[in-house]
Amino acid sequence: MSPRTRGEQITAWQLFLLEYGLVVASAQLYLIGVSARAAGRDAWLVAPLAALAGLAVLLLLLPLQRRYPGESLVAAARHLPPVLRQLVPLPFLLWLTHSTGVLTNEFAQFIGTTLLPLAPKALILLPGLMVGAYAVYLGVETVGRMAELLIPPMAVISGLILLLTLPEFSFRNLQPVLLDGPLPVVRASLVPAAWYAELVMLGQIQPHLAKVDRLARVSLAGWLAVTLALFLMGVGTLGVWGLLAGRLMFPFYSLGTLVELGEFLPRFDVITTALWTGGMFVKFMVFFYVTVSGWADWLGLDDHRPLVPWVGAASAVIALATLRGEASMLAYLRGLFPPLTLGVALGTPLLILLLGRRVAAARPARGQGPAAGG
Amino acid sequence: MNATESMRRWSRLGDDARRLRLQTERALHALETLRAGEPMDAEPAAVEARLRLLLAGAPDLAARPLRLGSRPATLFFLEEMVDESRMERLLVALLEQGGPPAAAAGPSEVRQRLLGGSRLRPARTYGEAAQALADGQALLTAAGWREGLLLALEHVKRRSLEEPKAESVVRGPREGFIEDLETNLALVRARLRDPGLRVVELRLGRRTRTRVAVLYLVDLASVALVDEVLARLRRIDLDGILESAYIEELIEDDPYSLFPQMLHSERPDVVVAQLLEGRVAVLTDGTPFALMAPATLWSLLQANEDYYERFWIGVAIRVLRLVLVFLALVLPGLYVAVTTFHQEMIPTALLLRLAAAREGVPFPAMVEALIMEGTFEILREAGVRLPRQIGQALSIVGALVIGSAAVQADIVSAPMVVVVAMTGIASFALPHYNLAIALRILRFELIILGGALGLYGLMLGLLATLVHLSSLRSFGVPYLAPVAPLSLQGLRDALLLLPHWAVARRPADVEPHDPVRSGSGLKPRPPVPLAVTAGRRHEE
């Protein structure tokens, strides 16, 4: 266990919620729109298919955690030979930093679209980053507790949206199934699969779990919950919008605007926006924290806090300078994002695991070492 | 400073000033020897001279000559600090002893023979003696003794027990703590007759030497918590402790936080209730306010009376308080954000009213809100310290002049006055004043954020507050427990309030040793009808 990870602990319920928020918070915004554009009315099949990537990542993280108990993904790389121990996690860290910037951008875009259409992006982004930095500075316990406060309301309101739009739902919008064959669905699931693969970030958080024996159960339960939620959202949204879903920026969010709870509350979607912002914020805190703690582990620091302002500044620069507007963002999402994310998310734990096993095999004399558990 | 120089400076001073200066210097010198632990003289006259010097010529230092048998003796005490009647009795007892055997007696023999000898302590150094005199004890010295005898005769005038003004109840005990530690301890013990009640006494404050008692139930409170409280208290090194707030400030977890991290109360029943949940209480001499730790946000939203009324009303009031917190914190900020940025969110009929009311107002909503909230704070602050008669005039000025005249003059809009009034009432309705203070300060930040960034600003402000609250701990217990970290069992008492028969366990966030609070099957049931029992008896 690296010295920094020793003190802070999170509960199984917190890990479950972090996992749920990590995928669902942004997927409920983008997933259905993106997949409906590619797969049409079969878009509801995308989530279960993409979920396999998440499962693969989780199944890679579990043996890693068994082999190097209490060590984060990047810290586990320290068991590799000298050059490799720096080289193997490096793409992961660069990808993390970039992803945090991308997410910052997505967050600002969501707020800009729903709440502040006229405000410059920097004005939205920088205060948000500051609050996120404050949470990350305080550590993973705080992030876990924030998930406990913010994720359940977000899940409840999403469920409410689905329930309250049931009258508009029609199975006819989902039929015929697989009219163009399975290929469009597979192609469409590439981007969502990358979102699922972001679960690799849990590798930095899992070592903080207080009851380690629950790790496998919790992470698989979280994965199931995510998949079930996205599946239901997909079915619910497409059942109402049909092919229209592909033309909407945030189809599921727009579903919320259909809801009317009596005359006195004409804007149900305000509540949705408020609670989803909370969820997005949790996801953002996880990205931010994982990036900071990843770099800290890589540099061998005992304390992640000195890195918070640097990672925050990097995210701001990436969000403001490299992703100019919608077009470049979408181009990144459709182009580089899926292969990059899938490669890094699956490759990093796999490499550490395989190389680690070889190192252990080459040095059987140390016997009792980390290999004992693996 | 050499002698000639000091002489030159002294010659410039008048006679009185010179005398005072001399006296002070001597007393300072005496205090130094006192700290060095100088042993007592054997001669009462020498002792008197020394003590007068030490206490800087205190005019209320009485020295009463006696004879213990053939030995000349002196009783020293500070006049207004001792109990006259007890002193009389003691003197009689001392004089009755005056026979030949007592003539040879040392302090320990006197101590053994005297009634109530267990409350007598020897004083071997001048330091001990001077401290005891300052505490209000009396000092007995006799010729030939190498030590004095301290007699606990202290008596400080106290007020009688009253109902606490800030924590009055409709139903519930009416006794409150007073400024005397002994009385307060007795009030707690009278309600908690458990031999497991531990009282650890400390003296804090270099000069005030304030007595502080730490109370806990030894078989209930977690050892780590008690150790932590005691360790933090022992660390205190301040010249004076005048109120428990001094202690609170020095032992809380996050000194910069706006939020109170300890509970305080003037009511013995509240202290006992908290002790029974495994918390630690700190009583301070000289103040009726007891501190209790650890505190969570939810415990600050509870009032003792919640448990004295029917539990349904307790449940309803808990929910109401959450609404109050929301109103007190967010309402003005929300009003500013919505009217400035998101007018489309307001139902049309209401929007028209608001627009009509705001039509002539020259300020943006944020400035208007800040002005009104500021005015409200000024009125409140002015009202707190004024005598009641002037307070009435103040409320007339506040309500009429600032409220209605400002609206009529179109300086502020009427809805804003409504919003500010609701916010004010909501914050006064919270049971703990110190929590309301935190919300009041945060409210201003939220108004500014709401005025600058609309709902997003408001959300960021709330998120930042939540982040802070999530990281906060009170003596190791997370401030938001049992909601975050979640404990389903703890939720039953924190958010809801279930009747005593339904909550058999103590709140787990305090980590009590013995989690079970009551027997099982306490839920009252109607008796079996008489006819049935009669029939059953018949069958037997």
List the helices and strands and how they pair.
The complex is a heterodimer of chains A (374) and B (540).
Chain A: H1 12-39, H2 46-67, H3 73-76, H4 82-87, H5 89-114, H6 121-138, H7 140-164, H8 183-188, H9 190-197, H10 202-205, H11 215-241, H12 251-258, H13 268-299, H14 308-322, H15 325-334, H16 337-362
Helix pairs in contact in A: 1-7, 1-9, 1-11, 1-13, 2-9, 2-11, 2-16, 5-6, 5-13, 5-14, 5-16, 6-13, 6-14, 7-13, 9-16, 12-13
Chain B: H1 3-11, H2 15-35, H3 44-54, E1 61-68, E2 71-78, H4 84-96, H5 100-103, H6 107-113, E3 120-123, H7 126-135, E4 138-142, E5 148-151, H8 181-191, E6 197-204, E7 210-217, H9 223-234, H10 244-251, E8 263-265, H11 268-276, E9 280-284, E10 290-293, H12 311-340, H13 348-358, H14 365-385, H15 388-408, H16 414-428, H17 433-471, E11 473-474, E12 477-478, H18 488-494, H19 530-539
Antiparallel strand pairs in B: 1-2, 2-4, 3-5, 4-5, 6-7, 7-9, 8-10, 9-10, 11-12
